[in-house]
Amino acid sequence: MAVNYATVTWDQLHRDARLLAEELVANMPIKGIVAVTRGGLIPAAIIARELNCRLVETISVVTYDEEERGEPRIIKSPEAAGDGEGFLVIDDLVDSGVTARVVRERLPKAYFACLYAKPAGKALTDRFVVEVPQETWVLFPWDTAPLFVPPLASKPIESDS
Ligand SMILES: O=P(O)(O)OC[C@H]1O[C@H](OP(=O)(O)OP(=O)(O)O)[C@H](O)[C@@H]1O
Ligand SMILES: Nc1nc2[nH]cnc2c(=O)[nH]1
Ligand SMILES: [Mg+2]
């Protein structure tokens, strides 16, 4: 399957997290936020700031062994969140939905929100901001760096032959 890339800048991420926070105000009051590490950490920090929430827990789910997708494992439990009642769970993205499913099983009463969602996983969310095509790979600002690109005119001209 062809892979397209969608680059998300820090500005876009901040804007999308604030848009999500605006929607989540309807859930107030909340007991706290659970960030799904690592990708949910920065979105959760922005949302915690907007919702004036100081109780921020984490859950860490590992779904890959080496390069292969393995049996998902919770390597850090969100002890402060109980069964999730009154808590918002924040992740950056749902793709296949494997991570979200494990999180929901552990926190069945929590409200699950994320910034970006692909079709295969979006039904596992309670709210998301932007839908992304399944074949698109989202490049987050913490995964990328600005790179020098040579001017077009300096590239060698390819011949047709
Ligand atoms: O719906 P899924 O197919 O499970 O994919 C979505 C998950 O994948 C990424 O996390 P990843 O496991 O790569 O770890 P990270 O957050 O530590 O980067 C992303 O942050 C989501 O948590
Ligand atoms: N950065 C990134 N991580 C992912 N994990 C699962 N899908 C994605 C994606 O589209 N982008
Ligand atoms: Mg993640």
N/C terminus separation? 29 Å
CATH class assignment: Alpha Beta
Give average pLDDT, whole number.
Answer: 95
Q: Can you list the strand order of the major beta sheet?
A: 4-3-2-5-6-7
Largest beta sheet, briefly?
6 strands, mixed
State the shape.
globular
Number of domains in the coordinates?
A: 1
Q: What is the helix/strand order?
A: EHEHEEEHEEE
Measured as a percent range, the helix fraction is 10-25%
CATH topology category name:
Rossmann fold
Number of strands: 8
Q: Beta-strand level of the residues, as a percent range? A: 25-35%
Annotation field: number of helices: 3
Low-confidence stretches: none
Overall radius of gyration: 18 Å
Spell out which ligands are present.
Answer: 1-O-pyrophosphono-5-O-phosphono-alpha-D-ribofuranose, guanine, magnesium ion
EC number: 2.4.2.22
Subunit structure: Homotetramer.
Binding site for xanthine: 95, 138
Cofactor: Mg(2+)
